[in-house]
Design brief:
single chain, membrane, transmembrane, Sulfate transporter family protein, mainly alpha
């Protein structure tokens, strides 16, 4: 069930609707990063360099230039680290579009889910960013524990990503409490699916597609679990 969902989601990543969403996501991400770059460089020039000149009044002019170059390198490195998280936030705004494409294409006989309000989508994308940041901070701390190492990254992110994206897929058809109850009932399955998402997240460049892959995969998984739930109810 999990691998079927993952395979279907991976194949859909190269479909025209998914490519269109990814292009929009990447374009908005680039705009956001460019704006952030100019904002941070202006802040450095306005605050940091005058502060250094005040702190070190005898500082030669070339030292200021050197400080500016070092700051630019540090900012460029920071931008590189922010690409995946910022992409995740932007992609969160299009998750309902991805889910609807999957539902209409692969389940034409079923009703499509309810799209989340814009504010709810924004909250979900912000939560996803928080999950990624928190998960990686915890994983980095656990890397200091002997015997844990890289497994910490997959365990923490597998749990958090599986939970967030399964509940997203389920809440298109269910209330929030019902979606959470269903996720808890299939906690093991959702966690294993989350591990696949974490593996996707760990691959450079490919990780830019993580939100789209995760949303599509969890739509398929929720559909499969819903069928199982109906069959189980009918046997009672």
């Amino acid at each position: 069930m999990i691998f079927d969902a993952a395979r279907a989601a991976a194949l859909e990543l190269i479909s025209p609707p998914f490519r269109a969403v990814f292009v929009k996501t990447l374009g908005l991400t680039v705009l956001a990063l460019v704006a952030l770059w100019f904002g941070l460089t202006s802040l450095v020039e306005w605050l940091a360099l005058p502060w250094l000149q005040t702190l070190l009044p005898g500082m030669p002019s070339w030292a200021g230039w050197l400080g500016g170059i070092i700051a630019a390198i540090a900012l460029a490195f920071g931008m590189a680290l922010l690409i995946a998280p910022v992409t995740a936030v932007v992609a969160g705004l299009f998750l309902d579009d991805i889910a609807e494409v999957v539902e209409r294409t692969d389940y034409p006989g079923d009703p499509t889910g309810r799209a989340m309000p814009a504010l709810r989508s924004l909250v979900l994308s912000a939560r996803f960013l928080g999950v990624v940041i928190l998960g990686n901070i915890v994983a980095l701390l656990l890397l200091l524990v002997p015997g844990v190492n890289i497994a910490a990254f997959f365990i923490v992110n597998g749990y958090l990503l599986g939970r967030e994206f399964f509940e997203f897929a389920a809440m298109r058809f269910r209330g929030e409490d019902e979606a959470r109850a269903l996720r808890r009932h299939y906690a093991g399955t959702v966690f294993l699916a989350g591990l696949l998402i974490a593996a996707f997240l760990a691959v450079p460049l490919l990780n830019l597609l993580t939100p789209l892959f995760a949303a599509a995969m969890m739509v398929h998984l929720h559909k499969a679990i819903s069928v199982r739930e109906v069959a189980r109810s009918s046997r009672r």
